[in-house]
Amino acid sequence: MSPQQFRAQDKLALLLALVPYLLDQRRVSVADAAAHFAVEPDLIREAVSLIAVSGVPGETKQYQHGDLFDIDWDAYLDRDTIVVTHQVAIDDTPRFSAREAAALIAGLQYLAALPEHDNREAIATLMAKLTRGASAAPSQLAVAETASAAEASAEEIGTLRAAISGETQVEFEYLNARGQRESRVVDPLRIESIDQDWYLRGWCHLRHAVRTFRLDRITGLRGTERPITRHGDDVVVPSTLFDVSADDLRVQLELPSAALPLLADYVTPGARTTRTDDKVRLTIRVPHYHGLKRLVSGLPGLITVLGPPEARQIVADWAAAGAAQYAESDA
What positions does the domain PafC HTH occupy (predicted)? Predict the structure, then answer.
């Protein structure tokens, strides 16, 4: 864009974006800055001239030498290179604390470990900016790749994505919720990540219905050249992750009212709840008691299993077995 096409608000937007860009780059040529913002070099030079006379007046309400931005004029005039040597007010803006920056960096490390995030360079650049911009050095944290992310390898996700985009079927061996291994042929519709687990949603030719498959229970995944027979427009993919089945087991639970949204995927529409003080009682449906154990372990200290007696006994035995392992370890 030429200087003649630039309006006043465009110049202000360029100036506001140019200052942090120069500070982040530390040393950049006029040509590179112009290419970055897709403008003519003369617009960059005009903005630099304005930066050099910008600042915040001191206590005297007058501009002194230290109250203005400054650049390396020798580098600018002789080599057409911009280097900001003095900045004003930028350091007075609120910064992330060391703990806040460490938490954000840990989250970025987790994202970098997921197979779907292949732009590691962008994530590394953002982590470096957070480290430099924090009020103090962030704590050194390392986030290991989760087992589910490791098992849901980039190759498996790539195979599924290729099948979804190419509208072709996939085949695999699946360990179902009851511990039975079955061969499945599926028309893949979508893949999604919930918490630490990856799931495939698709039309299962064995069950003749839409089913959800956990990727860490899939083995021998292979793509085919057969076209799918069910498309996203042909079937209804439930908005909830877990489908209701006539074979599901009913379990009565008690938990704090504030924790009820955490069970949204397990609560069927129209299910009755009974509230007492800050507690709520309700009945949920689970495919098997192993899934109930996983649910209880995911919300430690929040869920009390009220019935049926078989469910209470299974969860109690499972918790006792876990506690016994800690006792053995201490011994």
Answer: 10-132
